[in-house]
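Convert to structure. Protein one:
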Amino acid sequence: MSQALLAGLARTTRPHSMVRRFLALDAVVTGANGLAYVAASGPLGALLGVDATLLLELGLFLTLFAAAVGALATRPQPPALAVKLVVDANVLWAVLSLVALVAWLEPTTAGALWTPVQAATVAGFAVLQWTALRAVSR
């Protein structure tokens, strides 16, 4: 990804600000997703074809993860190791989402569409965060 594209997406040319903004965006989107899973695990579970208890547990995890990522985003210079852990967690989430889709979930059509979309979104966060982190080290 070019530096110009990255700066355009982050709306800044300062590498530390890029990292912080991509972490913050991740925290907001993940937090909203987690809270939706917690607040409406029954209806969303029925819509997606996923067990409501599983969705509730995933929602709690996502909400806590989002809070941690949000706290990291408030740091003036987020530690590289912590950002790498967020990137790794995002990659793992994206991969496990797709594995779950083919290995053990029996989703509805909406769930079969939603799962790869959210996996791609999370993978996109990982790419943006990793690329911005690399720009910091240059």
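Protein two, convert as well:
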Amino acid sequence: MVYDRERFEREDAVYAEHKKAVAAGEKRVLRKTSRGELHSYPADEIGFTPGSGQAQVSTWWGMGIITVFLGLGLIVGVWLFQRPLWGGGLPDWGALWLIGFAGLMTLYTFNLARGEYRATRLRKLRGSPKPSSSGGVDINLLELGQDRPGKPGASR
């Protein structure tokens, strides 16, 4: 890692501003932007944070696509449940598992997509940069005045 004095000074300034805002009672989230810079976001500008698996969804429309497929699974479950009724038989009670799972997951992913859409819209209105899809920031590495890795004369 190459030591970049200006970048670390900007990060220290953002971190100090973030701590001051949190101390004043604001709900803030400290994240890296998609360009790798540190930024203190108001809590309403952060939607969902992708997981650490291989395939990650990081946009509201991507989560919307997953919601649509889960909704289709819900429709298939309802169809499977009612299909035997059309022939005069009993409902297929095993389909309730599919209905329950697909229904709950559809609601969950819809809420994630809606929250990310609102956060994206607020970031555009306020001119905030897009957060990185990698998640949070290690606060322990940001303590003001701390030696940084790669810094000339650092103890690491």
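The longest strand covers residues 28-33. The mean pLDDT is 83.
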